[in-house]
Design brief:
The protein has about 140 residues and is α+β, with helices and mostly antiparallel strands. The chain contains 3 helices and 7 strands; from the N terminus they run βαβββαβαββ. It holds the Pfam family Acetyltransf_1.
C-alpha cells in the first residue's frame, strides 16, 4: 500500500467516487454531495493497493495556521480494519505538522470514535447529527 495525492482528473474521479460510495450513498445522498466548495484549497490523500485499486481517501484543510482539520475519511469496505485509515491519518498529520500546525481536529462519526481514540485523538464535544441519524463528535490531537 502507498499513500499519495490524486494528480489527474482520473485520480480525482476515483477519489470522489469512493468518498461518495462510503460517506454519502448509503444515506441516499446524491452524487456530487461528496464535494464541497473548498476542495481546491485542501490537501487530498489516498491509499492505493499494489494493484492500483483505491482503498481509502481523506482531506486536510487549515482552519488557522495552527489548526488543521481532517475531513471526509473513507475506507473501502474490503479494506476496513487493515491499516488504511491509520496510514491516511499518519500521512495527513505529518503534512499538517510540516506546514506548522500544532493540532489536528476532526468531527468523527460515532462508529469511528474508537478508531480515533486508538491513534490518540480526544473527544472534546458532541457536535452535529448528519442526515438526522449520524452523531458526530469533535476530536482533537496535539501534534508534538
Amino acid at each position: 500500500m502507498v499513500v499519495t495525492s490524486p494528480q489527474s482528473k482520473q485520480d480525482f474521479d476515483r477519489y470522489y467516487q469512493l468518498r461518495w460510495e462510503i460517506l454519502r450513498k448509503p444515506w441516499g445522498q446524491p452524487k456530487g454531495s461528496e464535494v464541497t466548495t473548498e476542495e481546491d484549497s485542501c490537501i487530498h490523500a489516498m491509499v492505493l493497493a499494489d494493484s492500483g485499486e483505491i482503498l481509502g481517501v481523506a482531506r486536510l484543510q487549515f482552519n488557522s495556521p495552527q489548526t488543521a482539520q481532517v475531513r471526509f475519511v473513507a475506507v473501502a469496505q474490503q479494506a476496513q480494519g487493515k491499516g488504511v485509515g491509520k496510514l491516511l491519518m499518519e500521512y495527513l498529520e505529518k503534512v499538517a505538522k510540516e506546514k506548522g500546525a500544532t493540532e489536528v481536529v476532526l468531527d468523527a462519526r460515532e462508529n469511528a470514535v474508537p478508531f480515533y481514540k486508538k491513534i490518540n485523538y480526544q473527544v472534546t464535544e458532541k457536535t452535529y447529527l448528519l442526515f438526522n441519524e449520524i452523531q458526530h463528535y469533535r476530536m482533537v490531537k496535539k501534534l508534538l
